């Protein structure tokens, strides 16, 4: 089996949905849906979980996004076919919500990946319309959010496909010695040694110290050092390679809240990860998590959207409304011919926010000088082949790849 001669795939930001944009006649939302439906397949990250037949209880005191099954009908009406389910809201109703979401998305014919009743199921690729999806969450969350196959007499646990990403702090030697002395002086080092001795905690890596839960290691200058768990990465690579071997076009979806101070930039560990996923067989890498648009890069001929921002953002936090970057995004339409990326078409989107009523928080096509400036700024940050041709205006750009 081989990739279809020509595939056009729509890619969008995260869909955190609590209200139906189509509850009333809505030609603006329908115009966006028409573009999505003109593609062979369409992807979004469903940022939530379904309050369905498996029940469940809120696992958070705020920003818990358990929603009615009918919200999935809205995503279907937009034209989405492929959903990543791996994110920080997947477990908002616990394992029960994971199972309800799987049941309700399956009943509607979505192709989903990133969660499952076991870790093996959550890692596996899902395929539909010639497009396979492998979706993962890179945290940082408690272990209870993540799926498990069960071991040592424990049963399996429904949850997300985990890609462990952790941070160590590089500390100059003199400062590191002072911090180690402080941990010793207040008894932290002794408490840690006791817990390690009885197997309640693992020791820090050789040469490092545990400073009240943060791993520190010697470095010439103050720095952050990021580490992707090798076993988790190997699982993703195996799933991607298997999907690629089936002849499908492969999407690798990565959700994370390990954000730098500048949310418009990907974390420093993400570009090297994208290279690994592409080397394993991914035809595109799509990032989600940060609620703002991040840059595009073409790596080994494949598109990497480090962060697609938002598509639907029905946040319960009123504090997000005044921030324009959260309410501006894009819809991408990617064309592959015989498995090779040839074109990226992007449409600027306005999503609501600001002083608009919450009922107006839905995507609509954005045109005019501000939209042109928005896309021009975004494409100027992209890492593209030198002979890429860019054309378009008024809220729409087309990138022709060599």
UniProtKB/TrEMBL annotation:
Pfam families listed in its UniProt record: PGA_cap
Family matches, as InterPro entries: Capsule_synth_CapA, CW_Biosynth-Accessory, Metallo-depent_PP-like
Q: Outline the extent of the Capsule synthesis protein CapA domain.
A: 8-315
Q: Which superkingdom does the taxonomy of this entry point to? A: Bacteria
PANTHER family membership: PGA BIOSYNTHESIS PROTEIN CAPA, POLYGLUTAMINE SYNTHESIS ACCESSORY PROTEIN RV0574C-RELATED
UniProt lists the family membership as follows: Belongs to the CapA family.
Q: What is this protein called?
A: Capsule synthesis protein CapA domain-containing protein
| Taxon lineage | Bacteria, Pseudomonadati, Pseudomonadota, Alphaproteobacteria, Rhodospirillales
């Amino acid at each position: 089996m081989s990739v279809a001669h020509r595939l056009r795939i729509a890619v969008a930001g995260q869909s955190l949905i609590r209200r139906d944009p189509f509850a009333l006649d809505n030609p603006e939302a329908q115009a966006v849906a028409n573009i999505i439906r003109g593609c062979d397949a369409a992807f979004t990250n469903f940022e939530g979980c379904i309050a369905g037949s498996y029940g469940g209880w809120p696992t958070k005191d705020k920003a818990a996004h358990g929603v009615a099954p009918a919200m999935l009908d809205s995503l279907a009406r937009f034209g989405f076919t492929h959903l990543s389910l791996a994110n920080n809201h997947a477990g908002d109703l616990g394992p029960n919500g994971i199972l309800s979401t799987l049941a309700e998305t399956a009943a509607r014919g979505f192709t989903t990946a990133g969660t499952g009743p076991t870790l093996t199921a959550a890692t596996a690729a899902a395929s539909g319309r010639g497009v396979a999806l492998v979706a993962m969450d890179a945290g940082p969350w408690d272990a209870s959010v993540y799926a498990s196959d069960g071991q040592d007499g424990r049963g399996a646990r429904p949850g997300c496909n985990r890609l462990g990403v952790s941070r160590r702090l590089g500390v100059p030697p003199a400062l590191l010695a002072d911090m180690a002395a402080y941990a010793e002086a207040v008894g932290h080092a002794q408490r840690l040694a006791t817990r390690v001795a009885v197997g309640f905690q693992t020791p820090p890596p050789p040469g490092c110290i545990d400073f009240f839960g943060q791993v520190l290691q010697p470095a010439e200058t103050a720095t952050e050092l990021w580490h992707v768990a090798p076993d988790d990465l190997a699982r993703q690579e195996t799933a991607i390679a298997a999907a690629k071997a089936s002849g499908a076009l492969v999407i690798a979806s990565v959700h994370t809240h390990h954000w730098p101070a500048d949310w418009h930039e990907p974390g420093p560990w993400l570009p090297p990860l994208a290279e690994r996923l592409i080397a394993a067989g991914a035809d595109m890498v799509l990032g989600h998590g940060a609620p703002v648009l991040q840059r595009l890069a073409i790596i080994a001929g494949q598109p990497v959207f480090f962060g697609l921002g938002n598509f639907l953002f029905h946040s319960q936090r009123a504090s997000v409304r005044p921030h324009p970057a959260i309410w501006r995004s894009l819809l991408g339409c990617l064309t592959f011919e015989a498995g090779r990326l040839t074109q990226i078409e992007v449409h600027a989107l306005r999503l609501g926010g600001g002083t608009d009523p919450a009922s107006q928080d839905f995507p609509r096509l954005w045109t005019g000088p501000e939209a042109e400036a928005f896309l021009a700024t975004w494409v100027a940050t992209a890492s593209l082949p030198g002979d890429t041709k860019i054309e378009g205006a008024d809220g729409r750009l087309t990138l022709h790849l060599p």
